[in-house]
Design brief:
Strand content: 25-35%
Order of helices and strands: EEEEHEEEEEEHEEH
Radius of gyration: 16 Å
Number of helices: 3
Distance between the termini: 22 Å
Strand order of the largest sheet: 1-4-6-10-7
Structural class: alpha+beta
């Protein structure tokens, strides 16, 4: 008999991290390239909540969400220069796909290729970059160095501007993108931080 959940699993705590982490992971998608509003997981209920309207004309250039059962804590913070610790959220992930996916609150299988470091008010807020599994266009891409430069520039620009508020100082800065090896180290750290923070939820 096939196993199933009688109730909706919490996307952060109830979904698997993926078949072969840190290389192949699950991503829970919160926002899409079509969203003019930033949605974010409500940590208590597991449903999406409206975080804020996008303040700039820049829209997410890829699917954007998080990796279940990860936590940006002390270990994640140690991997970023200038960070006092992680931002206390699940690890963010962008998933590149040839075909545009218009729905959020979907689960996708993703293959990690790199990441973008963001320092937000002194906290590490890494953005892992991955490609959609079984996507024929992205099939041969194993590292961020294989991704076309303009696409990486678009991702970097989005994260450099998406927290800008008129009349307020900018507290988030984006560094140089990194490749798969460092991205996998960040994911390993986030899995360990999660196990320390939520021991009852760790399989």
């Amino acid at each position: 008999m096939q196993n199933f959940s009688r109730w909706r699993p919490h996307p952060w705590h109830g979904l698997p991290v993926g078949p072969e982490p840190p290389r192949r992971v699950t991503a829970f998608i919160e926002i899409t390239p079509f969203d003019f509003v930033k949605y974010e997981i409500d940590k208590e209920s597991g449903y999406l909540r409206v975080d804020r309207p996008q303040r700039t004309s820049s829209l997410p250039p890829a699917l954007y969400g998080f990796i279940p059962r990860t936590f940006a804590g002390e270990r994640v913070g140690r991997l970023m220069a200038g960070a006092s610790m992680g931002d206390g959220d699940p690890l963010d992930i962008c998933v590149l796909s040839e075909r545009l996916v218009a729905k959020s609150e979907v689960i996708v299988s993703a293959r990690v290729v790199g990441g973008i470091p963001m320092l937000d008010d002194g906290h590490a807020d890494d953005k892992i970059i991955a490609v959609l599994e079984n996507d024929p266009l992205w099939d041969g891409f194993d590292d961020l160095s294989h991704v076309p430069g303009p696409y990486v520039d678009r991702l970097t620009h989005y994260f450099a501007t998406y927290k800008m508020f008129p009349g307020r100082p900018v507290t988030a800065t984006v560094g140089d993108p990194y490749g798969r090896r460092h991205a996998e180290a960040v994911i390993h750290a986030a899995l360990a931080d999660y196990a320390d923070t939520f021991p009852a939820e760790t399989p």
